[in-house]
Write a structure and sequence with these properties.
EC number: 2.5.1.62
Largest sheet: none
Main location: membrane
Number of domains: 1
Strand content: under 5%
Keywords: Cell membrane, Chlorophyll biosynthesis, Membrane, Transferase, Transmembrane, Transmembrane helix
Radius of gyration: 19 Å
Subcellular location: Membrane
Membrane topology: Multi-pass membrane protein
Number of strands: 0
Distance between the termini: 63 Å
Structural class: mainly alpha
Length: 294
Amino acid sequence: MATPAPSALVELLKPITWFAPMWAFTCGVVSSGASPTGQWPVIAAGVILAGPLVCATSQAVNDWYDRHVDAINEPHRPIPSGRMPGRWGLYVAAGWTGLSLLVAAALGPWILGAALFGLVLAWIYSAPPLRLKRNGWWGNSAVALCYEGLPWFTGAAVMAAAVPDGRVLLMALLYSIGAHGIMTLNDFKSVEGDTRTGIRSLPVQLGTLGAARLACLVMALPQVAVILALFAWQRPWHGALIGALLVGQFVLMRRLLAEPRERAAWYNGTGTTLYVLGMLVAAFALRPLAVGGL
């Protein structure tokens, strides 16, 4: 049996996608308020689990079950191009799932539970019979939760060795909701193949302009809620900084809405950067609250 080249394996696992959950896990660690002293090995392992393991698994699973769609949208990808031959894509997805669970189990029950939940979502997002991605409302919600809320919760729970403070959970939830908009913009590149194969992504359902407007609204409203919460919790400087980042996003959103399909990828590289910077600001704002400050 032919075997894939290492470069095809790396491409299948998509390192560029690992940043979001690794960043969210780091935000969880920061927001916990706990000192990292003596915890660096666990923190490093958690970051690796969030990105190169669990997130990479989700990419392999998605590419295997999307191989027919990718043959239309992106035929250069490893599976439709033949650089990942036979059933190797499925073998990698299954193997990375097992490896992720082994590493998570070694790190303790909180990480194992979160990893198991994330991996289940990864499989039901792409694989039949559920295949949540067939509808953009459900699919994008699952991905947003796995990319932002779940790793944030995990990072905070590991550091606290308990369920995180309710305000930490609220921030993780709000940024997960906002990430639904990021996932919608990510679907713009697949409109043709999604239409032909019956995948009802939001750009397919609403049109590119309607989906772009929805994505902007879904990204903005949770950030407004974050700002209001931080002012209520007497963290005005942090709230004002996130407000400034949101104003920058509004400026970029105007350009996005002028040509949504052409500029969706551009906005994911510019406006989304401001969004995730706000996540870290919120995490630092939570530190004294999580340890009983103020």
